[in-house]
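Support request from a user on the community tier.

User writes: "When I paste my structure tokens into the form, the page sometimes reloads and wipes my input. The last time it worked, I copied everything first. Here is what I submitted, just in case something in the input itself triggers the reload:"
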């Protein structure tokens, strides 16, 4: 095979979970992505909402078996020497669709070829192949070293400090928020004050979120407790008692990805949201508002693929009347902003 050499690497990646406008959930998944010639392979594949089999919530024995497969120490799970490189983040069922490729040894080298989108036992390369992607030839030593180090380290990416401390006056809202956060893989604890919390426990949090009724003096006291514990923690000032909105704020604060945010900026004013994206991706924009009776109103205002650059998304005046907010999401990135008049 005459493919030129490509570099091979691995990098931690995230499929951000979330609470949907209809109250449903998308799972949070931390995984290891494949990096080819310095670029995440997933970014080359039409910006799929998918994760690799090397996920942090995969049992260690199965994780190791996945690595052995990539090293061609086990038989391919699919006909034709094909392996799953990315699958459904919710269920990993092949019927939902998966990116597969042939992985083979060629002397000391490893070759990935014939990339395809596959929903059954056999791949149709003519209809579903990723034409123009690959083949990639990797030097054996570099390839084996990257995968071996992955197993030797932890068996998966770290989810350290994906935990938030919740402080507020409305216990019912805090309870619902904690449940929603836990459902997408973010640990959450509720307290009224951090003064008596041991320093070693405070070091386990990545963010602290305050309800709107919490006074500034109390907020300062809590942040001082974290400072004395020697931990830099993100501060989240809750915008409104709207659980999906607060979840998005916490996700934004806990962003620790190895790559820059794909949604670089978000503003909302003058009847439109201004969004800047760093790479082509599917973006979903949702508007939340409180009506005169303090009831939550939700409106999906945009869902589509945006090319790199700045974009203007019109906002229906009814969707952002009064006290309102917008949330912009894409895989691995979320931003929240209040709507200014």
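"...and here is what came back when it finally went through:"
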């Amino acid at each position: 095979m005459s493919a030129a050499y490509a570099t091979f690497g691995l990098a931690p990646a995230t499929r951000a979970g979330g609470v949907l406008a209809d109250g449903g959930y998308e799972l949070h998944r931390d995984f290891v992505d494949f990096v080819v010639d310095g670029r995440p392979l997933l970014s080359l594949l039409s910006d799929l909402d998918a994760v690799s089999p090397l996920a942090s919530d995969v049992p260690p024995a199965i994780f190791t078996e996945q690595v052995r497969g990539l090293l061609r120490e086990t038989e391919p799970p699919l006909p034709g020497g094909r392996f799953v490189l990315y699958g459904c983040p919710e269920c990993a069922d092949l019927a939902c669709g998966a990116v597969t490729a042939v992985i083979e040894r060629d002397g000391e080298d490893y070759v990935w070829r014939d990339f395809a989108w596959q929903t059954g036992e056999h791949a149709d390369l003519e209809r579903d192949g990723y034409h123009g992607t690959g083949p990639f030839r990797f030097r054996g030593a570099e390839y084996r070293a990257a995968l071996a180090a992955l197993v030797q380290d932890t068996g998966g990416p770290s989810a350290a400090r994906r935990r938030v401390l919740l402080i507020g006056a409305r216990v019912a809202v805090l309870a619902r928020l904690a449940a929603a956060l836990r459902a997408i893989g973010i640990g959450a604890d509720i307290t009224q004050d951090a003064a008596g919390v041991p320093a070693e426990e405070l070091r386990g949090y990545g963010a602290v979120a305050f309800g709107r009724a919490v006074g500034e003096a109390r907020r300062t006291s809590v942040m001082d407790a974290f400072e004395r514990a020697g931990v830099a923690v993100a501060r989240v000032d809750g915008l409104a008692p709207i659980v999906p909105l607060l979840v998005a704020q916490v996700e934004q604060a806990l962003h620790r990805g190895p790559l820059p945010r794909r949604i670089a900026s978000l503003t909302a004013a003058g009847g439109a949201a201004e969004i800047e994206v760093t790479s082509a991706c599917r973006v979903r924009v949702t508007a939340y508002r409180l009506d005169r009776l303090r009831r939550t109103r939700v409106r999906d205002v945009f869902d589509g693929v945006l090319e790199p650059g700045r974009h203007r998304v019109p906002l229906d005046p009814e969707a952002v009347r009064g006290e309102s907010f917008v949330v912009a999401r894409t895989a691995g990135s979320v931003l929240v902003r209040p709507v200014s008049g």
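Agent notes: The reload is a front-end session timeout and is unrelated to the input. The two ends are 61 Å apart (CA to CA). The longest strand covers residues 296-306. Escalated to web team.
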